[in-house]
């Protein structure tokens, strides 16, 4: 086994571990991201506040109608009780009755408007509640899937780490420190394939002298551009 092949196998194991760790980080971020739910809760709370305001307005309107109706009832009782016999007073009572009835119609129109406003606000509230419930349900399902994936990834990491430990114990790596240094400097990829005289990582053309060196089992060759170890593909 050549020096580059030995390190390339190690690279593949490390890449499996790195990729799994990166995905776990993404999963943790996705699970912590509650912006959509917070926004939906805000819309629901605003709709709830608006609906309560419309409900309170309707109650106030109903009280005004009831109070006005009570005044009319008192007026009518006094008008037709026979207690008042003075023509002038009777005329005043009749005028008052007309005025009270006219204003009652105004209040009843406002009451109807308040009822329609409440119905509209309640419809918006129901829609917001349904949207929030749906989002929470979907987020719960997504979390279950993400937790399952995370568990599988953690097992994948454990297996790759066991394989790596076994590999290193069976095949000591004299170039291990070089490999580790390159991994830190090259975004985790220390060994890359050389395919058709090109570096697979950066795409640079590999000079023939370096290519020949890379194909030699006893030597390590490095990409002149990205400095990674080249392994013939």
Describe, in short, the structure shown:
It contains five helices and three strands, in the order H-H-H-H-E-E-H-E. The protein has helices at 3-32, 35-80, 87-170, 176-185, 208-214; strands at residues 191-195, 198-199, 229-232.
Describe the 3D structure:
The chain is mainly α and 233 residues long. The protein has 2 domains: 1-29 and 174-233, Helix Hairpins, CATH 1.10.287; 34-158, Helix Hairpins (Orthogonal Bundle), CATH 1.10.287. The protein has helices spanning 3-32, 35-80, 87-170, 176-185, 208-214, and strands at residues 191-195, 198-199, 229-232. It has a 3-stranded mixed sheet. Helix 1 runs antiparallel to helix 3. 14% of the residues are buried. The mean pLDDT is 97.
Named at the architecture level, the CATH assignment of the largest domain is: Orthogonal Bundle
Question: Based on DSSP secondary structure assignment, what is the total number of beta strands?
Answer: 3
Largest sheet: 3 strands, mixed
Oligomer: single chain
Strand order of the largest sheet: 2-1-3
Count helical runs.
5
Strand content: under 5%
What percentage of residues falls in helices of 4 or more residues? over 70%
What's the overall average pLDDT, rounded? Answer: 97
Number of domains: 2
Element pattern in H and E: HHHHEEHE
The low-confidence parts are: none
Return the CATH class of the largest domain: Mainly Alpha
Rg (CA only): 41 Å
The gross shape turns out to be rod-shaped
Please state the structural category: mainly alpha
Gap between N and C termini: 14 Å
């Amino acid at each position: 086994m050549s020096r580059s092949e030995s390190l390339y196998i190690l690279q593949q194991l490390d890449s499996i571990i790195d990729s799994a760790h990166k995905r776990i980080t993404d999963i943790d971020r996705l699970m912590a991201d509650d912006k959509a739910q917070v926004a939906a809760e805000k819309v629901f709370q605003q709709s709830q506040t608006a609906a309560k305001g419309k409900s309170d307005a309707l109650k106030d309107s109903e009280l005004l109608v009831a109070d006005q109706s009570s005044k009319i009832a008192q007026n009518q009782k006094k008008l037709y009780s026979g207690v008042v016999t003075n023509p002038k007073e009777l005329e005043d009572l009749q005028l008052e009755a007309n005025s009270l009835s006219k204003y009652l119609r105004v209040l009843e129109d406002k009451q109807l408007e308040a009822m329609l406003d409440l119905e509209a606000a309640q419809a918006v509230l129901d829609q917001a509640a349904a949207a929030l419930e749906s989002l929470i349900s979907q987020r719960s399902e997504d979390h279950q899937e993400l937790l399952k994936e995370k568990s599988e990834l953690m097992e994948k990491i454990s297996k790759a780490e066991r394989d790596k430990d076994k590999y290193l114990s069976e095949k000591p790596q004299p170039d291990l420190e070089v490999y580790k240094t390159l991994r830190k400097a090259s975004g985790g990829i220390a060994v890359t394939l050389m395919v058709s005289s090109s570096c697979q990582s950066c795409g640079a053309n590999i000079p023939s002298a370096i290519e020949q060196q890379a194909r030699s089992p006893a030597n390590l060759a490095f990409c002149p551009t990205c400095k990674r170890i080249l392994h013939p593909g």
